[in-house]
Amino acid sequence: MKGPVTGAEMEHNSEAGGQSEAPGGLSPNYNNSLGRPSLYDTYYLRTYQNYLSGDRLPSENHFRNIGSVADHQLRPTLEQIREGDFIKKDAGDAEADADQTELKGKVIKFGWIEGVYMRCLLNIWGVMLFLRLTWVVGEAGIVEALAIICAANIVTVITTISMSAVATNGQIKGGGIYYMISRSLGPEFGASIGLLFTVSNSVAVAMYVVGFCSSFSDMLREYAGEDAMIVDGGVNDARIIGSVAMVLILALAIVGMDWVTRVQLLLLFLLIASQVDFVVGCFMGPQDDTEKAQGFEGLSFDLLKENAWNDYRPFEGIDYNFFSVFGVFFPAVTGIVAGANLSGDLKDPAEAIPKGTLLAILTTFCTYIVYPIMIAAAAKRYASGDIRELNVTDPNGEMSMDGSNDTLYPVYNCTGRIDDCDYGTQISSQVMGLLSAWAPLIYAGCFAATLSSAIASLVGAPRVLQALAKDKLYPYIHFFAKGYGANQDPFRGYVIVFIVAECCVLIGQLNPIANLSSEVFLAAYALINLSCFHASLLKSPGWRPVFKYYNAWVSLLGAIICMVVMFLCDAIIGTVVLVITLLLYLFVSYRKLDVNWGSTTQAQTYVTALGFMQRLNQVRDHVKNYRPQVLVLSGMPGDRPPLVDFANALTKNLSLLICGHVVKGPITPRAKSAIQNQANAWLQRHKVRAFYSVIEDQSYEHGAVALMQLAGLGNLKPNMTLMGYKNDWRTCPRDEVQQYFSCVNEALDNYLAVAILRVKNGLDFSAEMGEDPTSPLHKSNTSTSLKGDGANGSDEGSDEPNDRSATSGDATPRVTTVDGKKKNGEELYVSRTGEPLPAQVVENLTQFRSKQKGFIDVWWLYDDGGLTLLLPYILTSRSQWADCKLRVFALANKRGELDTEKRSMAALLSKFRIDYSDVIVIDDVTKKAEQSTRDTFNEMIAPFKKDDESDIPDEISVTDSELLANKDKTNRHLRLHELVQQHSKDSSLVVMTLPMTRKGTVHAPLYMAWLEMMTKDMPPFLMIRGNQTSVLTFYS
What are the residue boundaries of the SLC12A transporter C-terminal domain, all occurrences included (predicted)? Predict the structure, then answer.
């Protein structure tokens, strides 16, 4: 292999008078005397990529599925380019290399002729061409018959155009219409139609084989005599012949697609020969009186005019009209996906499917237009078949002259004697053989039509099943995903389809389900048209089909027509198919599969959400529509499950919930993405409908403020901040206390309500629980980029300064029960050593998921707009809190007005339509607190007291002047501590109005001491402060 040509070599060649070989195969006259590197010189190409900037030139491999590899190197990430840290090989490369292992054997890929065009011809020129086309002409007449054929082909042309657009919008793999529908409309629709398609085609194999057996038996009786039989000349003969045919078809499929194509090519020649035989016979005309007596007159314009209009009459006990005849004929043109079903075996599906299918439709359409005209011009609707009646002209009948005493009528006059007429286009199914030059060739064509359709179904159905199994959309079918050989042939699928079809052949009664295949095809056609319409309507940037000759509204019309035709063909089977499709859709939706195929349903979700967001942005706020939209500063949700569960109880899928997380940076985008994925997985696993927002900042305070200001979009933004109480405020660094206090003030400054939740054993369980073993952070020790970029170091930052970013839980999306276990009994919460957590810890973790009983005490101390009262009411509407009753505590303005204040509060609650069990008015809140209470408070703030000589800033200390200025407030809060201990010690939840101070009058330690005194040694305690805007009204 020749290496790159160096400049010295080129100069030497030039001096020697020879012609230098240009690098990369350029012309010999190539002149590189200026010393410029050729774009085709791989040496300079590698130099440019690896050393100059780290960028790589555009390559097809870079745009394949995630994890693809080009030249053993991944496309560099943004941080790798900017930081110069490149990875030449890692675990992802090994997986990609394994995927690209060359398969042994000869890979067979087909072009558009043998792969699509030929297969579509074989399926569209089906048994209907030989057995039902003449009947359609006899019933509908040539005018309406041509209208039926044109209408049916319009449906298939529209569907093919839509399919061509979908098929050319990127590369498609094996699975045919299942692959196209699932990647366009999503796994729910794809899985539904894929499974139905597999089952119906398995049954269709048997249906075609039984049709072959029936034709074979008819031929035996016609040419070998009525006594010709194998066993009984009936069902058992069909079972024997059908079983032999099934085994031969299975063997052909197992041998390989190459032999399948050869056999189908032979069958196609038989089909074409039989049609030529028919055309020649029409022009030759009847060869004897027997053919004339059976209704064959030869091509005649007068007969064409006679057969121009319809003559609908009952057939096999069923009354027919235009639409019912259309329903009978339509299955004849449903073979347009025969090539698409083998998409994985095509060289270029995007080119082969549109070209081959459209040309096949054009070819067959021409024959389906010409043949009915020839039939109408050559064959009578009714004929008795009695040669003696050829010369009878009296419509009232003449006596036979042969001594049989039979009454003879004109041979084509069957009025009143339908039982005596067994021939003609409206009665006999063998008219094609009658009109042909050599009838046995028509039988051969019928055999070719049935067997080719059976082969196509047996080969196509397992490939759809294989693609469905690979995607793991249904449980227990992954066994059929394995392929064998270079072409990944689905041998296991062949076997299961053979078994189903053979069972149906042995049963022999296929009439009730004979239309199932056609109905499933129509449902698939409707979804293909819907896929094209949906993608075009959404105008997604990823919708860029190479095939441009489509229209969204035409595709929608095609989808509607397909649905109508489903019910015209068979209303009962059509309804069954729709119901089964819906049930399968719901089943796949219920499983919540983790697939991401970029379907139009995903795009529709985005467009719909964007539209509603824009509409919501135009809606003015009203007090009756107020909902708490909560920003909960939870850090990683798995660190504080009780806090997230409580916030979820407030919103409960009916309002906005955002879990905010402040991480001390810097962290790489990849590590940040890993954190987001881990948090979102935890929320999904625990059935919490919330958004997760992570922000990177060196300061907890600044990060929290950024979340308050930036979280949400338009009117869908938080109006309330929920925080966990800082239990370690007395022992942590003082600047952390100041940051926590500042967050409360910043929330109020940003016009947000503030809520602080405190529970007895704390909210942070990151120290007790281990990391999620499936989380990206847990696996970071095997990833160089994560390990070196500080993903593990994100533990240094958190929402509250003393927290870590560890998470817990498992990777399986199970429903959590109140005992902290999955439904299958496995532990959902585990310790860092992987052992189950103690029962008490699990109880604390899940305390807000369990059923609550008792009282919710509402201490509505100040008018904050009513939020202190509204939140407890919302909680009582949730199932966990439904058994709790509200007790409302209020303060009296004057000691002698207790009854008046109580009646006023009760009346106000009644106007607000809020149920309560009791109203209690407190009149002695201004009473001096007990000495023991004051001693406890003084002991609490003693470490924060500032001496005159101390240089500690006032913001993180307590001065004597501050205590003196807030003496009355301090006493009120200490007194509230005593009252709460007296009245609400045994409640399930205590809700109290959060004290709010003027700026600069109270510093962080004193404020935290107030909160500590009011909430210590209590059941779950929520302190809430509205933004002084009404959230309750008694007006309608």
Answer: 640-1036
Radius of gyration of the chain (CA): 41
Quick check: is 601 in a domain?
no
- Listed in sequence order, the residues at least 6 apart from 422 whose beta carbon sits closer than 8 Å to its beta carbon are 384, 385, 428
- 289 versus 78: the higher-pLDDT residue is 289
Write the DSSP string, 134-154: HHHHHHHHHHHHHHHHHHHHH
Mean pLDDT lowest for which of 98-102, 661-665, 844-848?
98-102
Mark 415-441 as b/e (b = at least 16 C-beta within 10 Å): eeeeeebebbbbbbebbbbbbbbebeb
A 10 A CB-CB count for 185 gives 24
Looking at the structure, do residues 545 and 630 belong to the same domain, yes or no? no
Please give the span between the terminal C-alpha atoms of the chain, in angstroms, as a whole number.
87
Q: Could you give the CA distance from residue 1033 to residue 1017 in angstroms, rounded to a whole number? A: 35
The string of DSSP codes covering 417-436 is -GGG--BSTTT-S-HHHHHS
Give the DSSP H or E segment for 918: strand 918-922
Enter the DSSP assignment of 53.
S
SS3 content of the chain, % helix, strand, coil (to 5): 55, 10, 40
Q: What is the rounded CA–CA span in Å between residue 1035 and residue 168?
A: 59
Mean pLDDT throughout 988-997?
A: 92
- Domain-located, residue 680: yes
921-935 pLDDT per residue, tens: 988 888 899 999 999
Helix (H) or strand (E) holding 1021, with range, is strand 1021-1025
Q: At what angle do helices 257-284 and 439-471 cross, to 10 degrees?
A: 150
Residue 303 shares a structural domain with residue 380 = yes
Position 870 scores a pLDDT of 92
What is the CA 84 to chain-centroid distance, rounded? 38
- For tokens 């079918």, what's the residue? 477
Separation of alpha carbons 386 and 422, rounded Å: 10
Taking phi over 0 as left and psi of -120 to 50 as alpha, with beta for the rest, 72 belongs to left
For residues 925 and 976, is the Cβ–Cβ distance under 8 A?
yes
Only one residue has tokens 């129509």, namely 522
Is the CB of residue 218 less than 8 Å from the CB of residue 227?
Answer: no
- For residue 98, being part of any structural domain is answered with no
How many domains in the chain? 3
